[in-house]
Design brief:
The chain has 409 residues and is of the alpha/beta class. The chain is built from 13 helices and 15 strands. It has two domains: 13-20 and 274-396, Alpha-Beta Complex (Aspartate Aminotransferase, domain 1), CATH 3.90.1150; 24-271, Type I PLP-dependent aspartate aminotransferase-like (Major domain) (Aspartate Aminotransferase, domain 2, 3-Layer(aba) Sandwich), CATH 3.40.640.10. The longest helix is centred in the last third of the chain and has 23 residues, at 277-299. Bound molecules: pyridoxal-5'-phosphate (PLP).
Length: 409
């Protein structure tokens, strides 16, 4: 029996960029009894969470909720709007973009993968001009969709989605815009409607502060229209019955009732006007990102994201000096200080680690995580230029949060 409810050394530091720590208030909400998913109470819960997630995606259009991890919602997005052999343009920002590309290929889609060569593309955001150029060359309009990752969780880069929309419009191309904001949503600013996104994909265990297990497709009218003609096989993932039944708050098959209790609570927390709503959420994570990057600079190490205009407010990738095994350092920090950090994935395996600053965190939990990193690197013999912890303390102390933490009495 795992006894994680009592840790003799206090709570584990879950500093990976998802799953993120689940606030007690959400855990408590999820502990309510499971109800009849065809009964009247359920309909009210369904309507509440569907309206809440629309606000979080910043959309007036339907958001479909699947009982699945983010990967399921990736598949749902592709198989609802595409047909076998369709050509899509995907952009390589990192490991998650590569996994989505692999999935598209496995589904029988002709998935072209655009990007900067080598590791360079993994240190920068989506290059919208490359997309514009490629679409302009597609005079036959054979490309059916452009697929990009908003917040690339493997690197710590948050791409400019509005610029991608502009590129598609500048090329006068009818392709759908599909965006993975699995880790961006609810920590980084995300605007499904304003940015003209056709399908936005997200998951529960990142910015929404829930356990893993539900995921989302926000869908534009153009995407719904495309789904009526698309022929890739779809049944569990099909939007049509979901959208129809969701009008009354119900689902065509058993939804994840207790996670929806948690989602209702998460929406209340994120949207609470007395705490400043979404703008305050985004400002908090921007500021935490700044503090963590101050630490990395204090250590004299490199931030994986090489373009300051696309630094992620969700996580920071920390590059290790040549010859240092980042995974050995992560293991030491886990063993000695009970803190989980994200590993380097794919092309950067063993070369970097990732510090999450998404979801439920604060200045002091981040300071503790940074202290764990600094101790771990020192114990591993990494040559540091100075104290990143001191640099982050200076940043946080010198830059008070824009919205005060405590409501005035
Ligand atoms: C976490 C994540 C995924 C995968 O989601 P799962 O819930 O693990 O299936 C995909 N894309 C991005 C950007 C992610 O952060």
């Amino acid at each position: 029996m795992l006894t994680l409810d009592f840790h003799p050394t206090g709570r584990h530091f879950l500093q990976i960029p998802g799953p993120s720590p689940v606030p007690d208030r959400i855990l408590r909400a999820m502990s309510l009894p499971t109800i009849d998913h065809r009964g009247p109470e359920f309909g009210a819960l369904g309507l509440k969470v569907l309206a809440g997630v629309q606000k979080i995606f910043q959309t007036r259009h339907p958001v479909v909720i699947f009982p699945a991890s983010g990967t399921g919602a990736w598949e749902a997005a592709l198989c609802n709007v595409l047909s076998v052999g369709d050509h899509v343009l995907m952009y390589e920002t990192g490991h998650f973009a590569a996994l989505w590309n692999k999935m598209a290929t496995r589904l029988g889609i002709k998935a072209e993968f655009l990007g900067l060569p080598g590791i360079e593309g993994w240190r920068r955001g989506v290059q919208a001009d490359m997309i514009e150029e490629r679409l302009k060359a597609d005079t036959q309009h054979s490309i059916k969709a452009v697929c990009v990752v908003h917040n690339e969780t493997s690197t710590g880069v948050t791409s400019n989605i509005a610029a991608v929309r502009k590129a598609i419009d500048a090329a006068k191309h009818p392709a759908l815009l599909m965006v993975d904001t699995i880790s961006g949503l609810a920590s980084a600013d995300y605007r499904h409607d304003d940015w003209g996104v056709d399908v936005s994909i997200s998951g529960s265990q990142k910015g929404l502060m829930l356990p893993p297990g539900i995921s989302f497709n926000a869908v534009s009218p153009k995407a719904v229209e495309a789904s009526r003609k698309a022929t890739l096989p779809k049944s569990f993932w099909a939007w049509d019955e979901m959208i129809e039944m969701n009008k009354t708050g119900f689902f065509p098959y058993t939804p994840n009732t207790n996670l929806l209790y948690g989602l209702a609570e998460a929406c209340d927390m994120l949207l609470a006007p007395e705490h400043g709503g979404l703008p305050a959420v985004f400002a908090r994570h921007e500021r935490w990102g700044e503090g963590v990057r101050a630490a990395v600079r204090g250590w004299g190490l490199e931030i994986q994201c090489a373009d300051a205009s696309v630094y992620s407010p969700v996580l920071t990738g920390v590059m290790m000096p040549e010859g240092v095994d980042a995974d050995a350092i992560r293991k030491l920090i886990y063993d000695r200080f009970d803190c989980s950090l994200g590993m380097g994935l794919g092309k950067v395996k063993g070369r970097m680690f990732r510090i999450g600053h998404l979801g439920d965190c604060n200045d002091l939990t981040l300071m503790a995580a940074l202290a764990g990193c600094e101790m771990g690197m020192k114990l591993s013999g990494v040559k540091l230029a100075g104290s990143g912890v001191a640099a982050a303390m200076d940043y946080f102390a010198g830059h008070p949060a824009r919205v005060p933490l405590q409501k005035a009495a």
